[in-house]
Design brief:
219 residues; 2 domains; binds S-adenosylmethionine; 7-stranded mixed sheet; 24% strand; Rossmann fold; alpha/beta
Amino acid sequence: MPHLDDRLKAVARQLRSEVHVDIGSDHGHLLKALLAAGRIRRGIAIENKRQPFENSRHTLAGVNAEVRFADGLEGVQHGEANSLSICGMGAESILNILQAFPSRVPPLVVLQPNRCPEVLRAWGLRNGFHLCDEQLVYGHWPYPILRFEQAQDARDPAYEGLGREAALLWGPHLIRRWEPEFVARLREEKRYWSDFKRLGPDNAQRLQLLHQILSGVQQ
Ligand SMILES: C[S@@+](CC[C@H](N)C(=O)[O-])C[C@H]1O[C@@H](n2cnc3c(N)ncnc32)[C@H](O)[C@@H]1O
């Protein structure tokens, strides 16, 4: 069994489906672990670089998985997979992959951007994918892990009753759960921006939103 770090273990716990595609599979460990745990029946690994492609082939030899050399969703047919993961990349790269072939995005999507998860929360809202869960895994830095499910209803209930801008920036589920580590990070960010004599409009707005969401708790 390949070793999964806490980040990929948290991704694996969000997945259960028949056919799963992992884009940017690299070492191939996520698919191997999902298959071994019986969380998926078949895996498709997609890589666009030669060495990671070979690494995935090596890891996944002899299990129910196929490794394809392709650029993102170019390597998957419409309706071929029930779920998708894209982990360990920048949010913009993940967004580009999702937007290149929107009709090929399966109904269950787990994304782990290295930073800027707001870009992907906004993708979910624009494209009818509800944000059903979100976790932060504390490793080298806090890794966001977002689970989306395709929905008919355009309104995502995760955002109901919350300020839209703050929820997009920091995550509706994380704000609702209000866990100590998360609150500590918000306070730290508020201190950081407060130290600046002058802020551009975006960061000034961010600081104002931080004041608002932190104003309900002891500081
Ligand atoms: C930093 S690694 C992350 C590996 C693994 N997903 C993880 O989280 O541990 C990113 C991998 O994505 C692959 N990659 C980046 N863009 C890709 C694309 N458009 N299509 C397929 N693979 C891609 C890279 O070659 C690299 O192996």
